[in-house]
Design a protein that fits this description.
This protein has 767 residues and is mainly alpha-helical. It is built from 24 helices and 4 strands. Helix 6 packs parallel to helix 18, helix 7 runs parallel beside helix 19 and helix 18 runs antiparallel to helix 20. The longest helix has 45 residues.
């Protein structure tokens, strides 16, 4: 077999350089955002020195003769309040999560160390008994270290994302005074900071970890990459708490603010008189930004780990071919460069001059990055892989050509794009599905809910076919390694995906700040247009996260089955079937917990908001200020308390099943959770997204049909608000958290596989 064109030395230079380029690019974007000043002297760049970029450079307030410099001060104050709320919540959350992190790290060490009775002697390798590998105690120690590294990287990724989002929201509001183009660029650049920081950090930490572990493991690559799987487990376990905790926080505030403010008191969204308004805006940052960042980092870490584990027992690992071994990392490196070029299309190459250009510009980001990445994958494949090699396939070695591996990655990439566009079709108010849901509001909330649920179920069909075809093709070509790199293909443009995703909550916050600062209605229209486009792109981002989670968890499942030495998973055996049926139930149990958590937290919020409206004199007239801090505290306390039971369910299930029922039942549980979890996640996210945009469709009144349903405060609009409120926990708490459930259980099972295979199945051994 011929070796790859790129030398091992070349690989060792290329990967860190690409990661550093990503970090530098994100810092440049941060600097450009920081040029928008939050000070009353000029309220942004000087209008006269900037070249025209989107609408007008003269401020809207100047045109209307109300250029109030106090507006800038108010924006800065509101931004400060949101930033402080988000930071204090995340610090509180991380204190609890830190305790869990340490406890679970101890558990990993004890379980894996006990496989060989904490022996320090070398042992025969799992897949090649003639060779001697490092002791199980080493795997225990290094798995624990990589778990902690993954957890810390995940937490840092989420925190940095939240920081840039709260830094950029008021700046986006101020730029909206000069035109929608300026505001779009500020919001998008801020999203890009998060996207590139996360992609580059994830890659760099993983690469450094592999090289440091190599100093001890030497030629024992099987042990080395088994220990690296802890990185994925750390990343995803933090993401679970970030997603669930953040999701409960944001939706408790959102539902409370909407039900009392919009439905009962008939005041606009983000009205400063609403006591829950600050908590609502804080929630956008801790749920949609910090939670999403940790979630996609977890997917990235796990797909890389799954590919590396399978590669280490294939010809790449057996022949110690470092360049081919690093193929997953080289794809991610190419992804950073491709996304960098793609980002420039949105911020520098083309100007947005009108509202209708926003959504196409964001969609073009996906198309351009996918097209360029296809070429990028081809370059990486032909330069970094030998023309022919073998891949481990459940006990045998399958011969694979490099072009087959290229197709595996490419089909994952394009399946992601298809899922993205199907999601957009079902959740954007530019298309008939959402318009039909809006039309159903004529006859009240009940018909709105029925239409919304039907839309969610229907939206599952094409994504599942796309995932199924991607699985079949990639498995046929390159077994489980093919599925792992297909997942990586879907996530290769993660920097652009995250930029688009983070853009939504930043625009949403910008609109809230404009409303609270009492700015012109024309500015609110501009920020609403940015937010509506952001809503759809957020749904696309969730589609990507769920699709990649399905592929990642299947790849991890394959690695687990191999590691636990299961030859076949036979559904007809009772041990497997009971696992399958229980596994399929878990997403429902998990969803029930998270939905009820949002409901009970929202109940407290509604009571508090009502109490303030009823007891604070002059609040409705705008003469008195509401008590924002109490609402922020309700959301914080509820989310910290309520995130623990769902988290415990996901983290303890594989341990309990593996220890008491053994690896065969556990393989059934993982398969069942994967199959049902993906369907519920897609339908929940799309139903919620459709209800939200149906409400916005009526509020915007952009078409003749929409105007017949409006205006705000009409009966159809109230029905739409109720639908949106029901959909909030579906699209922002249960749906997005489910993809972490299926990934996390799979990666946890893989990490503990040696222990389960040796000591598991206690009940079946007794009886």
């Amino acid at each position: 077999m011929k070796s790859a064109l790129l030398s091992d030395f070349g690989t060792e230079i290329v990967i860190p350089i690409c990661a550093v380029i990503g970090i530098v690019f994100s810092l440049v974007q941060w600097y450009l955002v920081s040029l928008v000043k939050l000070s009353p002297e000029n309220g942004g760049y000087s209008p006269k020195t900037e070249k025209n970029n989107g609408c007008h450079d003269s401020l809207v307030e100047e045109e209307e003769g109300i250029n109030d410099q106090n507006v800038v001060v108010r924006c800065a104050e509101i931004q400060n309040a949101i930033s402080e709320g988000a930071t204090s919540f995340l610090f509180t959350e991380y204190q609890y999560v830190g305790i869990f992190m340490v406890a679970f790290a101890v558990l990993i060490f004890l379980f894996l160390g006990s496989v060989e009775g904490f022996s320090t002697k070398s042992q025969p390798c799992t897949y090649n008994k003639e060779k001697m590998c490092k002791p199980a105690l080493a795997t225990a120690i290094f798995s624990t270290i990589s778990f902690l590294l993954g957890a810390v990287t995940s937490v840092v990724s989420g925190f940095l994302g939240m920081k840039i989002a709260t830094y950029a929201n008021a700046r986006t509001t101020l730029e909206a005074r000069k035109g929608v183009g300026k505001a779009f660029i500020t919001a998008f650049r801020s999203g890009a900071v998060m996207g590139f920081l996360l992609a580059a950090n994830g890659l760099l930490v993983l690469y450094i970890t592999i090289n440091l572990f190599k100093l001890y493991y030497g030629d024992d690559w099987e042990g080395l990459f088994e220990a690296i799987t802890g990185y994925g487990l750390g990343g995803s376990s933090m993401a679970l708490f970030g997603r669930v905790g953040g999701g409960i926080y944001t939706k408790a505030a959102d539902v409370g603010a909407d039900l009392v403010g919009k439905v009962e008191r008939n005041i606009p969204e983000d009205d400063p008189r609403n006591p829950a308004v600050i908590a609502d805006n804080v929630g956008d940052n801790v749920g949609d930004i910090a939670g999403m960042g940790s979630d996609l980092f977890g997917s990235y870490a796990e797909s890389s780990c799954a590919a590396l584990v399978v590669a280490s027992i294939s010809s790449f690992g057996l022949d110690h071919d470092f360049t081919s071994m690093c193929y997953p990392l080289l794809i991610s490196s190419m992804g950073i460069l491709v996304c960098l070029i793609t980002t420039l299309f949105a911020t520098d190459f083309f100007e947005i001059k009108a509202v209708k250009e926003i959504e196409p510009s964001l969609k073009n980001q996906l198309i351009i990055s996918t097209a360029l990445m296809t070429v990028g994958i081809a370059i990486v494949t032909w330069t970094c892989l030998p023309s022919s090699f073998t891949i481990f396939n459940f006990g045998t070695q399958k011969v694979v050509k490099n072009w087959q591996l290229f197709l595996c990655v490419a089909i994952g990439l394009w399946a992601g794009l298809i899922i993205g566009f199907v999601t957009e079709y079902y959740t954007s108010n530019a298309y008939s599905p959402v318009q039909d849901v809006a039309d159903a509001c004529r006859t009240g909330a009940a018909t709105n809910v029925i239409f919304g649920l039907a839309l969610g179920y229907k939206s599952v069909i094409i994504p599942i076919f796309a995932i199924a075809i991607a699985i079949f093709v990639s498995f046929s070509f390159a077994a489980m390694y093919g599925i792992a790199v297909a997942a990586l293909g879907m996530l290769s443009t993660i920097a652009t995906g995250l930029a688009i995703d983070a853009y939504g909550p930043i625009s949403d916050n910008a609109g809230g700040i404009a409303e609270m600062a009492g700015m012109s209605h024309r500015i609110r229209e501009r920020t609403d247009a940015l937010d509506a486009a952001g809503n759809t792109t957020a749904a696309i981002g969730k589609g990507f996260a769920i699709g990649s989670a399905a592929l990642v968890s299947l790849a991890l499942f394959g690695a687990f089955v191999s590691r636990a030495a299961i030859s076949t998973v036979d559904v007809l055996t009772p041990q497997v079937f009971i696992g399958l049926i229980v596994g399929a139930m878990l997403p429902y149990w998990f969803s029930a917990m998270t939905m009820k958590s949002v409901g009970s937290a929202a109940l407290k919020m509604v009571e508090e908001v009502r109490r303030q409206f009823n007891t604070i004199p002059g609040l409705m007239e705008g003469l008195a200020k509401p008590d924002y801090a109490t609402c922020v505290k309700i959301s914080t306390d509820a989310s910290i308390k309520e995130m623990i039971p769902p988290g415990a369910l996901v983290m303890l299930t594989p341990l309990i099943v593996g220890i008491f029922f053994g690896v065969e039942t556990l393989s059934g549980v993982l398969a069942g959770a994967l199959v049902s979890g993906v369907q519920i996640a897609i339908s929940a996210s799309n139903t919620g997204g459709a209800w939200d945009n149906a409400k916005k469709y009526i509020e915007a009144g952009a078409s003749e049909h929409a105007r017949t349903l409006g205006p705000k405060g009409s009966e159809p609009h109230k029905a739409a608000v109720i639908g949106d409120t029901i959909g909030d926990p579906l699209k922002d708490t249960s749906g997005p958290s489910l993809n972490i459930l299926i990934k996390l259980m799979a990666v946890e099972s893989l990490v503990f596989a040696p222990f389960f295979a040796t000591h598991g199945g206690i009940l079946f051994k007794i009886f």
